[in-house]
Amino acid sequence: MKSSKGFSLIELLIVVAIILIIAAIAIPNLLRSRIAANQASAVGSLRTLNTAEITYSSTYNVGFTSALSYLAPPTGTGNPTSTAAGLIDSVLAGGAKSGYNFAYTPGASDATGRINTYEITATPVSNSTGTNYYYTDQSGVIRQNSTTTAASTDSPIAG
Questions:
Q1: Burial of 45 (0-12, 13-18, 19+ CB in 10 A)
Q2: How far apart are the C-alpha atoms of 84 and 133, rounded to whole Å?
């Protein structure tokens, strides 16, 4: 009596087909969940930036920053200053995080040199990193647009 060991070609092809079907179902869900995570991170980063700007303004009493980099940590073991306040991490201070680019625009200085307004936009690096655009300013309200760069006239996000 002859004993056969191993799998037949048909059995291996069936296993490969099942794995491909499972992958075809799982990969789009994985991509959608990554986009959702990047978008949630962008909103969280905008909240962090708003809080950091308010903290900066009340700590240094000079209004808001003139550049996003002013909120970054000081170099080495130095103490925080008005140009390196240490209120956000160096990644966010660089203007990009979790598939989004952040653009900071300070308002014009008043007669005393204070900057009393600012705008921040968050735009996805590509369609695979996010689909929503975000905007915030000194009011702390975060606004969203699904088709183009968000502005102060767009709808606020819920929550």
A1: buried
A2: 28
Distance of CA 21 to the CA centre of its chain: 33
Percentage of residues in the chain having pLDDT higher than 90: 82
Whole-angstrom distance, CA of residue 120 vs CA of residue 128? 22
8 Å CB contact between 64 and 57:
yes
pLDDT at residue 95, as a whole number: 93
Token reading at 66: 């003139």
- Return the amino acid letter for 32: R
**What is the model's pLDDT at position 147?**
94
64, 116 in Cβ contact below 8 A?
Answer: yes
Tokens, residue 152: 């102060």
Average pLDDT over residues 151-155: 95
